[in-house]
Amino acid sequence: MLNKSDLLEQRLNQLNQDYVDSLPEKIRQIEMLWRGLVKHDLGTQDLKLLYQCIHSLNGSGATFGYTILSEIAAIIEILLKPLMQTEQLPTIEQQSHISTLLIKLRKAALEPKGHAIRHDLVAPTCQGGSPIDKNKVFIVDDDEAVAKKLAQKLEQYHYDSEIFLSLAGVKERVIASPPIAIIMDIVFPEGELAGTDVIADIKRSQLLPIPVIFISVRDDMTAHLSAVRAGATHYLSKPVNANHLMSLLNDLTEKINDDPYRVMIVDDDVALSNHFSLTLEHAGLSTNVVTDPMRVLDELKAYQPELILMDVYMPECSGLELAIIIRQFPEFNDVPILFLSAETNFDKQLAALDMGGDDFLSKPIEPRHLVNAVLTRVRRYRKTNLLAKNLRGSISRLAISEKRLSQIINTSPAAIYTLQVSENTVCPLNVTMMSDSIESICGYTAKEWLAKESFWLDIIHKDDKEQVFNAIKGLFDQGRLEHEYRIEHKNGELLWVHENLTVLEDRSGHIIEIIGSRMDISEIKHNELKRIELEEQLRQTHKMEAIGLLTGGIAHDFNNILASILGYASLANMRGGFTPESKVTSYIQQIINAGERGRLLTSQMLSFCRNIQTEAACIQIEPLIRETIKLLQSTLPSSIEFHVDVDEGLPDIQMDPTQLHQIMMNLCVNAKDAMQGKGCLSIKLKLVELTNQLCTTCKQGIEGQFIELSVADTGAGITKASIERIFDPFYTSKPIGKGAGIGLSIVHGVVHQNQGHVVLQSFLGKGSQFNLYFTPKEGEKIMGTCGDNNHTEIHKGQGESILVVDDEEGIVELLRETLDSLEYSVTATASSVDALAMFKESPEQFDLIITDQTMPVITGDELIKEVRQLRADIPIILCTGYSESMDPVLAKEIGVDQFFYKPFQLEKLLESVYSLLLKHNK
What is the rounded average pLDDT for all residues in the chain? Predict the structure, then answer.
């Protein structure tokens, strides 16, 4: 017949095999959900289910030996988490990345485990079925006289003792027949600290630590430190006070209890829950497994756990939500909750503890770590619970010393008081005792509280009285109340107080009085509001990050489309043979102009998500303003009337054209919102001379000559209070969902970054006017128009071989046809894998490479690195619609000769091809 240890090993092996058998189905479900999401057959709710499946694998994989599986699942979980939180489906790039990881996940599930399952579970103190002798105390001391004297004293207190005059056989005897406690000397013939070494060895082999009291003639720091490291409970110096020793021994042995500690395990992963259950049961604890969080309340009341081990991420009800619900029941308010999850983010772990948890354990967890963490908490809870019961019993049996109680009460930061229960009303009114500390809280002395019967009620803020009345009604049913409300300070200020009320009953169950305590928590409330405000700002930041990611994806695809449109339009101009007077020529030019406006629009979009410094230069402001106005007139509602007054011949300003376009768009869109889509939008641009003007945002004086850009609307205007904050990040007066509150903050930042100023004038019911002032500059002018239609001479090739690779078929065909027409020999492909294979087959065949950056399997920079290893001298042109990992500086570092953002001007690309080949051939 199998013993308990072998039976446990058998159950663990079966549990492990069940997990291995379930892996194919788990992987199949994950792949099915992923395919549905990619095909858009499923929605965001299924994305959450996919995330839950991946999270489960992350938490359980390493526990059952699949370390690599767990690591891959953790990476996928990180990628899915922002998509789940924002309820967005994955982009094409994200699909490619996650699909690759899912392939690796399946492979990891099919491969042998990374390590064998560790069954080195911690054994209970009572190994081999040997129970603790509740009366036996071991005395280990080589001084026989001292040992016998202690034994006699122990006998007086109804303890049995067993004396050891040497260290030989102590460990074996402790394991075979564990005592209730050990009293032990440190110094033995084997060494000055030999006693602590033996205890340390015993502690390592035992699960339930046996209380150890060291006694020694040594009283130095080394001896004390050695005792602490060995796991000593107490350390006493010889000669020992026998009464003090007995008192310590009684306190230590009171915690021995026949009943095993009760632990409830709440985790939707059945295999993992059973694994934890077996681990804890082997350590001598009782467990109750709940895999459905919706059944927890019923199980709590039936099982009455002394500790709850709970997963954080579960369907229907998360661990955090469940902890809050449990804490709402007074009988479970103090039961320790240990969160168990694969979550590694420290801030989120702290947030989980704020929700009512006592500790956070990270999956996978070693058996010894799990047992020790559980035991430490559950022991403390049982002891604390016992103490609490004893304390309540003592209060009902003993009279408390009035002088001592007065000292405790009046030195407490909380005001302590008692309330007399009235038979005619639910709400207690008469204060019968009040501590002196109340004066520091609300300004009224204790005497003032006692002088008037209804004083406790009178200073409650009128808006909170009904809430307090309703809470007091529940006090008599529950016996205890903890709540917060506002009171009026003596100086008229409003204070937030935290109040605890406890009903005091006599032996027959009749209420004698109510004991209360009150603390000023106004500062805590203020900090809490500040924290909520900061959390809201953080949520807005995450929202903007998500917008940036989405924008980048849209811009990448849009730029590829524009590259084809502009490229083929330019090719039509080059090869069409149309006369300048031909209507077809004008048609093509309109296509190019529209494409250039689209290119400028994507440039503005990318300015939100590209982490690059702006490039300021001297620009002509009026052409760019006119171009932006044209764009606005085509996009804003036709119900908005434009009044435009733009002077010509104005001086240049020092600024990035993209930034100027950005602030114009922000101001005009805000004006549109202020007018609710109907009204008059006035835009003026002129040279002005200012005196005695004050900047609205930086509060500095404005004097001298400036270029003034004015944007005015006929909306409802801005209140004075809003004007003070309207340029703050994340502040908005718009309803939720109508704006993030960051537009005017960008305007302020851009204008002052370019040494400008902002003046805001607004009148309620009449509208608002934003005046931006820029300092005139002298320098090389840059025209502010979108297009650059200057004719560039196109040179033909001499049969040079060019390799073109781009995953966009339209661009591949465009470059193939264009370069063919200029007498180049072109090899073009939409696969970076095929391109690398062709180059490896014949590196000397090609004279130049044109490649895209963002491509599946092998990206542009990876292709370039492979090519450079074969031929370091070949000219390379790199193009990209948008890439967070590539810019002109990085391109130059990896050996790119020319870098283009899509949509590129075809003539400039051809000019670069000719120039690079000419330079290389020399």
Answer: 79
Contact of 362 with 342, CB cutoff 8 Å? yes
Half-sphere exposure of 818 (CA within 13 A, CB side): 28
CA 8 to chain centre: 39
The pLDDT, as a whole number, for residue 132 is: 55
**DSSP element (H, E) containing 825:** strand 825-829
Task: Please tell me the predicted confidence (pLDDT) of residue 17.
Answer: 74
Let me know: does 761 contact 637? Beta carbons within 8 Å: no
- Residues β-bridged to residue 487: 460, 495
**Measured CA distances, 195 to 151, 169, 202, 625 (Å):** 19, 13, 11, 88
**Is the pTM here over 0.70, yes or no?**
no
Instruction: Find out whether 645 and 678 touch, Cβ atoms under 8 Å.
Output: no
Task: Annotate 606-665 with DSSP letters as a single string.
Answer: HTTT-------EEE-HHHHHHHHHHHHHHHS-TTEEEEEEE-SSPPEEEE-HHHHHHHHH
- Per-residue CA distances from 499 to 193, 437, 486, 491 (Å): 53, 14, 10, 21
Q: What are phi and psi of 368, to 5 degrees?
A: -65, -40
DSSP state of 363: S
Q: What pLDDT is recorded for position 540?
A: 56
- Distance from CA of residue 856 to its chain's centroid? 30
> Three-state SS string across 48-117, please?
HHHHHHHHHHHHHHHHHCCHHHHHHHHHHHHHHHHHHHHCCCCCHHHHHHHHHHHHHHHHHHHCCCCCCC
Count other Cβ atoms within 10 Å, centred on residue 227: 25
- Burial letters 242-279, b for 16+ CB under 10 A, else e: eeebbebbeebbeeeeeebbbbbbbbbbebbbbbbbbb
Residue 858 pLDDT: 92
Among positive and negative, which fits the CA dihedral 535, 536, 541, 546?
Answer: positive
Which residue matches tokens 């839950």? 52
pLDDT of residue 260: 86
For residues 76-109, one letter each, b for 16 or more C-beta atoms within 10 angstroms of the residue's C-beta and e for the rest, the string is: bbeebeebbeeeeebbebbeeebeeebeebbebb
For 425, phi and psi rounded to 5 degrees? -145, 155
Do residues 116 and 161 make contact, with C-beta atoms less than 8 angstroms apart?
no
Question: pLDDT value at position 605?
Answer: 57
pLDDT reported for residue 688: 92
pLDDT computed for residue 406 by the predictor = 67
CB-based contacts of 421, cutoff 8 Å, min separation 6 = 428, 511, 512, 513, 514
pLDDT for the residue 710 = 93
- pLDDT given for residue 603 in this prediction: 62
The alpha carbon of residue 771 and the mean position of all alpha carbons in its chain are separated, in whole angstroms, by 40
pLDDT digits (tens, 9 = 90+) for 367-419: 778 888 888 888 888 878 877 776 665 665 554 556 666 667 666 778 888 88
Three-state DSSP state, 915: helix
- With a cut of 50, list the residues of the chain below it in pLDDT: 1, 114-120, 125-130, 207, 255, 399, 608-613, 736-742, 780-790
DSSP 159-179: -EEEEESSSTTHHHHHHHS--
